[in-house]
Amino acid sequence: MDDIFTQCREGNAVAVRLWLDNTENDLNQGDDHGFSPLHWACREGRSSVVDMLIMRGARINVMNRGDDTPLHLASSHGHRDIVGKLIQCKADTNTANEHGNTPLHYACFWGQELVAEDLVTNGAQVNICNKYGETPLDKAKPHLREALQEKAEKLGQSLTKVPFKDTFWKGTTRTRPRNGTLNKAAGIDFKQLSLLAKINENQSGELWQGRWQGNEVVVKVLKVRDWSTRKSRDFNEEYPKLRIFSHPNVLPMLGACQSPPAPHPIIITHWMPYGSLYNVLHEGTNFVVDQTQAVKFALDIACGMAFLHTLEPMISRHSLNSKSVMIDEDMTARISMSDVKFSFQCPGRMYSPAWVAPEALQKKPEEINRRSADMWSFAVLLWELVTREVPFADLSNMEIGMKVALEGLRPTIPPGISPHICKLMKICMNEDPAKRPKFDMIVPILEKIRCKVTCNLLFLIKKALPKTTRCCIILKLVLWN
């Protein structure tokens, strides 16, 4: 079969679907020019393929090497239906490429009149200058220029030119396709790994920042007592199941090897610049998690868990907590497969009991409902997101495990929390595991909460700020959410 980029260019929906069904294929990878599958489908107007890629989690605002997004390509080629789909999925209508051109620049230059009008209606600014001092209106033919200018004025846009360096909309939506070669080889040659700096060390092993095949990676060196042929065989059988590239909210294990001369098992995964969700919430990073972002993280995690729960067999020995959720460069929360325990790693030991369901602390693994137990962990994680506190921070792990399992210790929901989130937490933390919802049931609930939080924030801004400042902030919020 031809590569995925060819299939997307040609609109072969059946082949694309089969390719996406393989969990080792990453739909957000790029070709030699940084074009993702979504770039090619949008450029060629393959609407059914675009629908499929977006539904599976393709990054909407991904940039190729020239900083063009899929919206740039769909706009320049006049694919109005695809432009509408991208905008509906929160595509940034004002993102600029390496020449400073926005999608509206291209729509005007190529005479795509209906697309240009749609872009302006959905927030595209007519006064943005590219690197050469030209606005989209400068690129348009006279009749289109007049029509867009009239529409922009009706929408309250200023026609004063905005210099290229003053573009305020560039933010966390900027991201590149991932290196598609990283998911080709599960086995890694230890000699190709460079360990640069130790990040952390605990009872399970060492964590290093490193490089592999020219890419920044995280290297985990596991500490295992009495390494044997059987453990080596189990390791080689188990780690390929964690190479899950097919969902945007799951962070795959890239590969593994055993380091000479001592046979320490080593696993590697993508380098995440913001670290874990625990780092972001509790360890003083520069990123502030407001209510909108907290709900977005919760939605990302729920989507990732909903996907993992569809796998048969399920990923065993996975523990959901804020230390096992990583934050990507575009502020996407991703569940890390490199934090899944192997069968030979301290069976029965709980490293983060604060997030573990009471029944999971009391019973053997084979006696619990894993899906229900994960939902309890998600409820604790949701509590952590809205309170910005570490659950049971004043207790040791031993005390937490004993009190949660035997004494009914539970997170206390403080006043002032959104009633919708409060209700969701209580439902997910039901004492009866059989009454807890499934992740695919709470995803639409979180989507509605996210929309409500954004609308409330827009209303507060509208009341509190002057009109010009208000317009700028509202535009940012609409584009980033």
TrEMBL record:
Residues 193-446 form the Protein kinase domain. SMART domains: ANK. It holds the Pfam family PK_Tyr_Ser-Thr. GO terms for molecular function: ATP binding; protein serine/threonine kinase activity. Coiled coil: none annotated. GO terms for biological process: anatomical structure morphogenesis; cell-matrix adhesion; integrin-mediated signaling pathway; substrate adhesion-dependent cell spreading. Keywords: ANK repeat, Cell membrane, Cytoplasm, Membrane, Repeat. Transmembrane segments: none annotated. The keyword Repeat applies. It is found in: Cell membrane; Cell projection, Lamellipodium; Cytoplasm, Cell cortex; Cytoplasm, Myofibril, Sarcomere. The keyword Endoplasmic reticulum does not apply. It is a peripheral membrane protein. Its main location: membrane. InterPro entries: Ankyrin_rpt, Ankyrin_rpt-contain_sf, Kinase-like_dom_sf, PK_ILK, Prot_kinase_dom, Ser-Thr/Tyr_kinase_cat_dom, Ser/Thr_Kinases-Pseudokinases. One of its GO terms (cellular component) is stress fiber. It comes from the Eukaryota. ANK repeats lie at residues 33-65, 66-98, 99-131. Belongs to the protein kinase superfamily. TKL Ser/Thr protein kinase family. This is Scaffold protein ILK.
